[in-house]
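Lab notebook, bench 4. Still working through the backlog of constructs that have no structural model yet. Next entry is a single chain of 440 residues. Request: give me the structure tokens for it.
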Amino acid sequence: MTCSTDQTYELCCVACGHTTPDFGAWFGAGQRCPACGANRADLAYSADYAGLAALLGGHPASFWHYRDFLPLGRSAAPVTRGEGTPPLERWAFLEDRARRDFGLDVTVVAARNDLNGGTGTFKDVAASMAASLLREWGVDRFVVASTGNIATAYATYLALAGVRLTAFVPRGQNQASVDEIRRLGQAVRVVDGTYADAKQAAADFAAAEGVLTSAGNIDPIRVESKRTMVFEFLRQLGRIPDVYVQAVSGGTGPIAVDKGIRELAGVGVLADARLPRMVLAQLDTCDPMVQGWERAVAGGFPDGWEKDYPVIADPQTAVTTLATGNPGMYPILAPIVRRSGGTYVRTPEAGLVTVARELLAATGLLLGPASVTCVAGFERALEQGCVKDGDVIVLNTGEGISRAPEFAARVDGTGEASHAVAHDRRWDHDRRRVLAPLPH
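Model written out:
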């Protein structure tokens, strides 16, 4: 590992409290706490948070706008393609639905992650952070397991950083992502079996080759990059939303929101640590977290409830980015949902095309199926009374349509060509019909 001397952070082990001085030492310890071996750490910064207020304005080019509150040395150049500050667009058609069908006066904004830098997904910030840190500390190889989006994002950014990636993906899932990774000159190993099999193969390869690999949804690289969306809430909304909606497979997004709010409350930037109510959506074809949550609710949240969830051995879903049948993050994520006053919701996969067509008609946008699952999750939250009058709701859409041509073709019958038309007309359409002033 190369040496950097200008770090302004340390990694604090969540399990035992031991501090690791920087990512160089963290990488050297195999991305684990050297004291207890845990692979989860929160970052604490020595930066002056009084300076954050000056950053919460203007139109930053990327999340590296918040560099003082990110773990990259001053002498290191970030690997960036303009990711991490997607516009929060006000979707009035969903507000109209809430008012018309449920008598609720709410504000609904969508984080347009299809505009999010390198690959048009919520994964781009994590990939930018990983590429930047790996390059800073002289790491030249890395391994990930993925159903598509994370591998594509990492392949894109690590190629820019000169880091060789080996991505393990389950056979038959997201061929467009496999093709893109190979086009970038990165290695793909297609694994027979499920996503869990791909993760095990990646772990075995990393151990045998002595290569670093992602720690998954609790990887501090991923959490630290994604928690900057809390800064974006403050910059674009002027406040923390009341409700946060996301389709969930693993759950880094909600974990990152929780970390960001705890961090800012701890240094006095926020008056309290109030979380938005987390509404996390899964499809009925792969819903182990929803099933676990329903068991907990029915049993009155007994001791150990967060460890009681099913494992779906072979999820039968066409939405491969949400095909996590063994939800290892549930014991971490579900208590955050409960503490927030939120819930899990189930939405039918068979209804996604209808929701996507409604979205296309209202906004001119074709988004990927995970993003549409988020919209469907908001609609289910309305039906289940999870939204209150006066709420400000953020929909954290996950992806664009570029790697889901079959879904696009089902939505409008023409697929990627139609997406190009919708994408080209985006800005004029948004200015005239979709966007209204954001609440401050």
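Notes after review: The longest strand covers residues 164-170. The chain has one domain: 86-440. Flag for follow-up if needed.
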